[in-house]
Design goal:
The complex is a heterodimer of chains A (775) and B (77). Chain A is α/β, with parallel strands linked by helices and 775 residues long. Chain A folds into 4 domains: 91 residues, Phosphorylase Kinase, domain 1, CATH 3.30.200.210; 234 residues, Rossmann fold, CATH 3.40.50; 217 residues, Dimethylsulfoxide Reductase, domain 2, CATH 3.40.228.10; 114 residues, Barwin-like endoglucanases. Chain A contains 26 helices and 29 strands. A 7-stranded mixed sheet of chain A has the order 5-4-18-17-16-6-7, with helices on both faces. In chain A, strand 2 and strand 3 form a beta hairpin. Chain A is globular. With 77 residues, chain B is α+β, with helices and mostly antiparallel strands. Chain B has a single domain, classed as 2-Layer Sandwich (Alpha-Beta Plaits), CATH 3.30.70. In chain B, strands 2-3-1-4 form a 4-stranded antiparallel sheet, covered by helices on one side. Chain B is globular and about 35 Å long. The N and C termini of chain B lie close together (9 Å). Classes of the chains: A alpha/beta (775), B alpha+beta (77).
Chain lengths: 775, 77
Amino acid sequence: MIKTITNRRDFLKKMAATAAMTAAASLFPGIIFAEEQVENIKASGNLKWTKAPCRFCGVGCGILVGTENGKAVAVKGDPNSSVNKGLCCVKGYHQTICMYAKDRLTKPLVKRNGRYVEVTMDEALDLVASKMKETIKKYGKDSVAMYTSGQSTIPEGYVASKLMKGAIGTNNLDCNARLCMASAVAGFLTTFGADEPMGCYEDIEHADVFVTWGNNMAEMHPVLFSRMLDQRLRRDVKIIDFATRTTRSSMAADKSILFKPQTDLAVANAIAYEIIHNGWMNKKFVSEHCNFKKGLTNPGYGTEDKFKFKDKPTSIDFEAYKEFLNDYTPEKVSKISGVSIKDIKYLAYLYGHPNKKVVSYWCMGMNQHTRGTWINNLVYNIHLLTGKISQPGNGPFSLTGQPSACGTAREVGTFTHKLPHGVVMNKAHREHAAKIWKVPVERIPAKPTYHATEMFRALDRGDIRFIWTQVTNPMVSLPKVGRYTKGAEKADRFVVVSDVFPTPTSDVADVILPAAWHIEKGGLYGNSERRTQHWNKMVDPPGEAMADAWQTIEVARRMGFEELFPYNKETHEDEIYEEYRLHHKGKKHNMAPLEVLQSQAGAMWPFVDGKETKWRYNPIYDPACSNGKDFHFYGNKDGKAIIWQRPYEPAAESPDDEYPFWLNTGRVIEHWHTGSMTRRIPVLHRAMPHSYVELHPEDAKKYGISNGQKVKVISRRGSTILPASINERGLPTKGQVFVPFFDENMLINEVTLDAFCPISKEPDYKKCAVKIEKV
Amino acid sequence: MPVKSYIAHPHDGKYQELLTELSMISACDIIASENEEIAIVITDTINAVEDEKIELQINSIKSLKMLSMVSGFETGQ
């Protein structure tokens, strides 16, 4: 007989059942379960449920965390969140389990005579502050650095920026978001003069066509992908997966189109060519709202230390742009890209069709690209040429990888060139920040210093002598990481690592500061759709673990900057947010008040007159529009967006006779980034216990490799050994291998190349040349 | 003591057969949909070894097309 759940092992079984029923509801809208069974599920003990955003990806799902006796015991999707509508992914449901891992860092550790010894938090913070002061005295302000995260909360990022730029007076602050979405930032800024997507997730309910550019949403943004699949069940919706590898997203899509690595640049131009030559261009929109520009070409790849590049944009006219596109006919591009002429024309048809609303989604495929800024520009071109932008269901939308890459890295500005509002190069922006921070404006340097890759090169060279990392694991995530690990271990370098767990990065630390996890502190995150979400502390951190923001404040005070950091320990997150809001006052970026964020599952900025803005640059929705026209791209002084002439250029390193394979790296659904949290969640670890190398079956046959056999992946930088995966989760094209990067024991970033986009400085983890050997 | 939940999808025309087979596994609770051909399966086992055995047992059911794990808890923690 079929049993119902009544009283056995109750609570967790009910939670497990709820999770599965919620997931089923996303796959089968309108699904009904027997009433008595559902009633049994509803009872869930004496838990206190508190809202928060999910700790993991940039989608920013709303979750409810169940706590009991000072412990987090369950997670469920927040039905009041418009992001996920009660759904969670497999990582989301299990996130709090990592908090109780046996090897949790609970005591500060200081390396003495090559061994770590426990000290009190006061001693550790004293040492960090004194070492930072001593280094500045000996080597100057630019010899100390902080490297933070797109997983840092808004208050954490804000106090890091205030300490480095406002108090110490150095721009040596960058973050791991440089590795994941800097190209999207540079793309938005060069095209629109303002960062972040103009649309929101509600576009999913309006679009007729979704084109995913190098983006495996089924694994990386599963809740949004479920929302797309849900729409397809309800109405005539097409999902087109445009990628270099067949993934779960390709399999679920209506059409999978594969292209050769790096040739997305050429295909995007071919789509623009087709749109213009078939008369699908929205002439009125383009003439009223767009300018045309070109930049420098052949800018290099940044593989050498102290690489410099500055683009020189020049205006061109439409005819010059049209002439340029003659090099990108479907026939020519088909030969470069491997995409059939028919498929190029099909993509152009979808974008050009006057009655189809189209959303383009992308994430790391376009951003981790040595021409990342260019490919972002080129996808915007397509939406601008057709006028399919800033309206429900029409728009380009860059998804972020991390939960606050937008909220913290981009909006607070934890990049070397950024301030909470604007950039360090702009005098008015420096004055604005200095006034709120109550510091002399001349203290904020006008020149950016080191982006992420160059920051760790500077540590290796000795230009930086002290570095403090928070909420990130660069000794697993940096490209060509072998050099940077050795650099951090050199004599006369001082490395401070704040983290929740021991990692390969804490292995090179001189001081390890135990950090509070997500719900052991309060905070705010900002997700991909400009949604700021607040949460309160729910449980105490273990031992002496402390919130990262409070660690920064304690060190700042010990360095003599007490007046700049006057916050209370119990309320510092909310106090900092109120101060931070001052930077963004105004219709273009106003942040929602704290009381709004405390009472609901987030709000999108610009938040004006008590309302969030769903579609920017469109006066129907955006009160910042003031030009009296039907669109206003107010990030640029003339209110117009820019259509960029950007060519196809090859990758920094391509396969050759010696290294005949492309290496592509990425993520899997079970693990979050470098796996330091998810590998400590037993159910996720068991589901994906180690990394692997995906091979095309013909390549595997040629090398005599079968599933599970050990394969050595070798590049000019290094090598690693992994088990082979053939025809399993993903399928690379012939001549390509794919390796997930979550596994610190199979460190694929020993193999990758530290080439980056010369404009955004974001490394390309998707393309370098390797050879393979059967071990 | 692992607790896990799954969504079980039957092969075409095999829904009732799948429910019958699942109901014969003692460590499984089943919540069957009334209007779609899927079932929620909750497993409750004493340790990881038993958990793996149950998963294998479920996966060996011929009428089962696909078993997707949704959540899992280790209650010993």
